[in-house]
Each structure stands twice: as C-alpha cells, then as structure tokens.
Amino acid sequence: MACNKEAVLRVMRAIYGVSCACPAHSTIYGSVSGRAWRNTHNQNSKDYAFEMACSNIRYGPGVTQEVGMDLVNLDIKKVAVFTDKHIAKLPPLSEAVASLERQNLQYEVYSDVSIEPTDQSFKDAIKFASNGEFGGILAVGGGSVMDTAKAANLYMCCPDNDFLDFVNAPIGKGLPITATLKPLICIPTTAGTGSETTGVAVFDYKPLKAKTGIASRNLRPLLGIVDPLHMRHMPRNVAIYSGFDVLWYISICDRICEKGAYTCKPKFREIAKIKFTSP
C-alpha cells in the first residue's frame, strides 16, 4: 500500500521535534561542537553518559545441579571450591559437590574462609589456590566467600605481584589487573551482597585497622548461579540482615559527591542510628 507523503513528513517532523539531546542520537549534537553541546546542560553536572557492564546470571530453583556441566564446558579438569565452615555442613555445598562428582571433576574444598575477611585470611586462601594447580574456581557461600575466591583467583594468576599491588589506593598501589584469570563461578547462599555480579573483593587490612578492597572488572565472576532454594538454609538473623543490606545500599546514598564521599538523605541518617534486634 502506497504511503501518504504528507503523513510521512508529519511523522519525521514530530520525531525531529522531540529528538533526544544525547551525543549518540541528537541532531543538535551533530550540528554543533561537543563543547557547545555540553554548555547547554547543567554546568554543575559532569555526567553525560553511562555504561552498563552486565553480569551473567542464571536463576532458578535447583540450578546448582548444572554447575558441574558448566565447568566441563569450560574444559576445566580440577576445581578449587571455596566455602566457609557453616556452609560446608549444609545442602548448598553438598549439592554443588555432587554436581562436580557427576561430571567426574577433580576438586578440593577450602572451608577456612573468614566471615569478615582480612589481609591474612586472603593470604591463606591465596596459598591454597596457588598450590593446587586448579583450572577454575567455584565459590559457594555469601559475600565473604565470593570475595575471598576473587582474591585467591587474582593472586594465583599473578604470583610475582606483592599483595598490596592491586589493593585500592592509598593503602595499596591500585595497579590495573591485566592478567587473564581463571574462570570463577559463584553460587550465593545469601541475598544481600550481590558479590556474584561485581568485580570487588572487600577485606579488613589489619596493620592499619582499615577496610579496603580490590576493584577491577577482571575480578568479576564468569557466572553467578542464583538458586533460591539455598535461601531456605539461611539462619533467621542472616535472612533479616540480608534484607537490611539490600535496603541500605539502595537507599543510603542520595548522590556521590565530587570527592567520592556519600551524602545521605536526612531520613536515612535516622535509619542508620537504629539498632535492629530480633526476638
């Protein structure tokens, strides 16, 4: 059916009239310099673009049973399994290990992860990973387990670097991570940290009594396997605190100011003062 020329022109005029002002699509940006375009925006704002680096997540009841096949598909022969002493006694780990065994994969379990990781607990995990000739890493646990696995993976693949080389400045040197790391798959057993999606490993640096970390996109797990059945095994208080963890991170910051400090809304400052208890 032939198009009405006037109707087409009306649509084009309408699109032109409401076209966005971003550099990628704007006719305005194409007709003026970038400096002139930026001058049309809020002078107090330095944000004009954003980037989304998406993580790989598989979600579903019972998906833990697939992790063995995932590792086989990656051509991994021997796996370092990180967990903590509590999770080591629960079904999430036994189900993950059973999946490895069904695929005849070799594995070693490291269950000495500290609930609040420190530089020393990281170093202990790094020593374990470095001595095992592992082709990949599986983390089953909460944020501490996943962060410890990230650090072990990094320094296992960078044996010539000092521990503080990759730690965030000013405590460490904050060097960029350029090495190719081993595949890391994370199976979270809590619902608060989201560490299965991030390239951050947080720990307490005991010599300075300071909390710091290592941050790089290269640390990010290859895959996060989110099995909601594991939430059944969280202690009551852990479930409560996981909920508050999520609430805190989505609400505490109104914005990040230029110096990197967090500016909190007054009502959230009041929330921060409350001591939550459970019967």
Write the SSE topology.
Elements: H1 5-17, H2 27-31, H3 34-39, E1 57-59, H4 67-73, E2 78-82, H5 91-102, E3 106-110, H6 119-130, E4 136-141, H7 143-157, E5 184-188, E6 200-205, E7 210-215, E8 223-226, H8 236-251, E9 255-256, E10 262-263, H9 266-273
Précis, in short:
The chain has 279 residues and is an alpha/beta fold. The chain is built from 9 helices and 10 strands.
Structure description:
The radius of gyration is 24 Å and the shape is globular. A hairpin with a 4-residue loop joins strand 6 (200-205) and strand 7 (210-215). Strands 1-8-5-4-2-3 form a 6-stranded parallel β-sheet, with helices on both faces. Strands 6-7 form a two-stranded antiparallel sheet. A two-stranded antiparallel ribbon has the order 9-10. With 279 residues, it is an alpha/beta fold. It is built from 9 helices and 10 strands. The model is unreliable at 27-32, 254-265 and 267-279 (pLDDT under 50).
